[in-house]
Amino acid sequence: MNTIFYAEYDAAHHSQFVFDIPEGHDCWLLVVTQTPALFWVDGKLQPYPSHCAVLYAPHQKIYYRACAEQYVNDWIRFDTDELYVTDTSLPLGKPFPLDDPEYCRKLFQLLVAEHSLQKDYRESSIDYLLRTLFNKLLESCDQENIGPQHYPLMKLRTAIHNHPSHPWTVAAMAKTLNISPGYLQSIYKKSFGVSCMDDVIHSRIRLAKEYLGHHRYTVVEIADRCGYRNVEHFCRQFKQITGVSPKQFKEHRPDRSL
Q1: pLDDT tens digits, residue range 88-132?
Q2: pLDDT value of residue 144
Q3: Concatenated DSSP letters of 184-238
Q4: Which of 28, 104, 165, 180 is close enough to 227 for a disulfide, judged by CB 3.0 to 4.6 Å?
Q5: Which CATH superfamily is domain 2-142 in?
Q6: So where are the chain's domains?
Q7: 43-82 burial, b if ≥16 CB within 10 A, otherwise e?
């Protein structure tokens, strides 16, 4: 069972902000930074960048402070007997970079909403949200070398998946990140295991399968809706990836794992 005492997102503080609890809270505290900050770690004050998370156990020393004109964070103070928290493998009292900070921020927004609304399923909703949040934290801990380009790349990949029909080009994508096309292709594949244009193509084919399986559009209409200006090119890429033509897919509804 989880009991949230207080939760807040987008909490803004002035440049002199200091949070100092030498004996810690008598409950858990999770902090996610949106701006750089200084944290007391291993007996000294150390700087950490934006988009870090730090989990404090009950009665653990807490000290962090602003190191710029403004300090912004999301945070939750809570009690729990759930093993995914009490037996977590996350480092305690030591910030670590988040793999997907925007996703975590949305979870914080939902937690704040659930905490403030007295709904019938409030308790179970909070538990599911906290479990999901801790899963994302564990995923972040498994990531290595989250560099300065990681977050812009994540935003770019999200945009590709959400808008596959957009006329994506390597040059245009690189321009949004202010890097060269060659460098984009190198770091994109290193980060996600797929090239940026292959990601576009696979996203378009996923959308095409959705249209073919659940809508009455023609193949020509689907090609256009998925960002193809040439239906033959669409059919060729579709068969290359799925092993069947769009027409065959529509007629036989093969396994959706294709």
Answers
A1: 999 999 999 998 888 999 999 999 999 988 788 889 999 999 999
A2: 64
A3: HHHHHHHHHSS-HHHHHHHHHHHHHHHHHHH----HHHHHHHTT-S-HHHHHHHH
A4: 165
A5: Regulatory protein AraC (2.60.120.280)
A6: 2-142, 150-252
A7: eeeeebebbbbbbbbeeeebbbbbbeeebbbbbbbbebee
How far is residue 143's CA from residue 106's CA, in Å, rounded to a whole number?
20
Nearest-angstrom CA–CA distance, 211 and 22: 58
Q: Is 188 exposed, middle or buried (0-12, 13-18, 19+ CB in 10 A)?
A: buried
pLDDT higher than threshold 80 for residue 242 = yes
Region for residue 193 given its phi and psi (left: phi exceeds 0; alpha: psi -120 to 50; beta: otherwise): left
Pick the CATH number of 150-252 from 1.10.10.60, 3.40.640.10, 1.10.375.10, 3.40.50.2000: 1.10.10.60
pLDDT of res. 258: 42
| Contact between residue 73 and residue 33 where contact means Cβ atoms under 8 Å apart | yes
Distance CA 41, CA 28 (A): 17
For 165-174, what is the mean pLDDT? 95
d(CA 135, CA 192): 19
Per-residue tokens: 11: 């909490």
Helix (H, G, I), strand (E, B) or coil at 148: coil
**3-class SS of residue 85:** helix
Crossing angle of helices 122-142/101-116, nearest 10°?
160
